[in-house]
Each structure stands twice: as C-alpha cells, then as structure tokens.
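Thread: quick sanity check before group meeting

JM: Hey all, I'm pulling together slides for Thursday and realized we never actually wrote out the predicted structure for the chain we discussed last week. Dropping the sequence here so it's in one place. If anyone has concerns about the input, flag it before I start.
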Amino acid sequence: MRALAREFEVVPMALYRYVHGREDLLEAVVDTMLKGLHRDLGGELSSSSWQGYLQTLAHLMRGIAVAHARAFPLIATRHPAAPWLRPPLRSLELVEDFLGTLKRHGFTDEQTVATYRAFSSFLLGTLLLEASTRGAKTAAVGVPLDEGDAQVPHGHGELDLRNSPETERLRPILSEDHSEDEFEVALETLMDRLEATLSQ
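JM (edit): ok, ran it. Output follows.
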C-alpha cells in the first residue's frame, strides 16, 4: 500500500478511502480484469453452439492474460467466491453462465462438470505459462544460495550446453515463441476430445 501511495504521490491513508487494504486492492484488480467478460459471452453466442461459446471464452480469457500478463496470476491465487470454483472461471456469474450454456446444448450433469474442470485446467495451465513468459511471477522466487560449487542460476538464460547436444541443436527452435499456435492446437484438441465424449 505504501508503494502504491508513492506511485500516486499521496499519503498511504488516502488509499483507504477506496479500499480497506491490500486484500481489497488485489480483489479489485481481479474484478477489473474480468469486468465485461460475462457480458461479452451473452446473447446469441450462448445459443449458437457450445463449441463457439468455449472458443470465444478461451480467447477472451487469453486476451486478458496477454494484456495483463503480470497481474493475471492473481486470478489463480485469489480466493474464489466458493472453494469448489476453479480459476480462472472464478465468479459465480461466469460459472453459472458456463454451466447453463452447456446444459442447454445437451450436456449431462457429469459431462458439464467434467467439461468445466477440463476447460478451467486447460485455461489456467496454458495461460499461466504464457503469462510467465511475458514477465508474470507465478510463484515467490527466493534468492538462490551459492553453496560452494552449486550452479546458481542468474536468469540470463546462458547455459553451458556442451554436454547436452540435442538441447543445443534445438535451442533456436526452443527459443521461438509459438504460444499463439500452441494455444490454438491445445484448444482444438480439447474441443475434439469433448465432442468425442459427447458422441459416445
């Protein structure tokens, strides 16, 4: 709160007119990121096809992760409205819309919940990974201890690859950013799997 007050050039107590403290502030950040998501999923989209709904939701959520990469992990780490809600689909309004849409398209209860779990896991895993490549801190990072001969990472990515020929050979390809294509392939794979499950 003190750091934020310095950023706005106000005394820390001035912030408490708007939030009760750090927890409120972090919740407000998450709410701001997700604002309008439910609205953007409404109307004709909910009734057109379940595939279109899930693809649109996935792309909207990815848009948030890309636009707010450093803040996106808060969606995963803040407490959801209930313990059985899974990030990043963490608001009751959004989950209700998700579950209701799938039910209207003929999903059984079991299929609906399984889809919610698979879809939220897919989103969280891929988008946290992508956010981390864009500068997000997804976990607390401690200062590494130099214990004699330990190989202490310094974060610059320069590694001795002489004893790792395959890694060295493939390093140029490994360094390429294919996150958008990987997102699309993973999403299509998930959709195909869900479609196959429904047709059984």
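AS: nice. Residues 11-136+167-198 form a domain with the Tetracycline Repressor; domain 2 fold (CATH 1.10.357.10). The radius of gyration is 21 Å.
JM: adding both to the slides.
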